[in-house]
Design goal:
It contains 16 helices and twelve strands. 47% of the residues lie in helices and 13% in strands.
Amino acid sequence: MWRSSTACLSVLTVVHEMEGFGCDVFRQPLCVVGPLPPPSGGMANQCEQLVRLLRAEGMQVELVPTNAPYRPAFIGRLPVVRAGFRLLPYLLHLWRAAGRARVMHVLANSGWAWHLLVTPAMVIARIRQIPVIINYHGGNADSFFARAPSYVLRLLARASLRVTPSGFLQRVFAKYGLSVEVIPNIVDTSRFTPMTPRMFGDAPHLVVTRNLEEIYDIPTAIRAFVGVRSVFRRARLTVAGSGPELPYLRSLVGELAVEDCVHFSGRIDNVKIPTLYAAADCLINPSKVDNMPISILEAFASGVPVVSTAAGGIPDMVENGVSGLLVPIGDHEAMARQVLRVLQDGSLAERLRQAGLRQAQKYAWQQVRAQWLDAYRHVAASRRES
């Protein structure tokens, strides 16, 4: 294994120990290709955090955003046309950045984004003769690979290094004959302050921090909340996120007669999200498909107990009964029961809080940064040798 065991060393020490090669990493920028908020999402938040933290360590990082704002802005309201207005500047930026970079780091996921954004990046990197790290996110990898054109797996096989944030995706890749390294998602623990347990009385505050999309199954969380409210009559639920499911969710809240206690806050900026967790008594994660939700890591870092479905890679990061409580996908009754356990058993809630805080440290930048630096060193050195 090429991964270094020197995670506790400072970044400068790690880089200068690269057999005289580390200084080149600073002179020639790393090219990071990926999305940025808004809208907030796991991969966009990870991209923003990684670039910010690497730059803070002194590395030269050139970001090529895959979702740059439309210019002029009204183009964003024109389907089909807007794709061309975004794609052409993206390709030009990608070509220029690849000519300056030592290594290209591409954040990737399933679907059309792969074909429109990841494939051009890999082709340009090949033409420019620079190594590529494919950093794959998203819980839909298995179904995507199963029906994708054969060139998708061929391109993945040609990447200098494949990285996933979880053992769950590592197992999916192995199913298709592809080896990967696991480097976990990052939670910037400096942004979150672990809160002491609050005296919520009969008015606990539950939160859901996922985009309003079908795969995240917000209706299950709302139905579970109705079950919680049958015991805690003044309970509140905040759903923080935006997306196409909002009209349906508002209708569902009306049908269940909980309009007065369910708040759709819309998308909350990253800088403000710690305030939401500080006022929460439990995080609910109802997703059907998932890999390594950043919302769970943020709840861990904030000392907020977690109740989640056992979708995808979540059991790899949440140990049931230890750092969180897991329930079957789509089972709102089981979710309500587990949330009630957290709210009614103070000792259980405290054990979950403490275990979550310990778990968050495994994903802190101080633990993850050396793994990324080793990855960059590894692929850059392979280019030099070739």
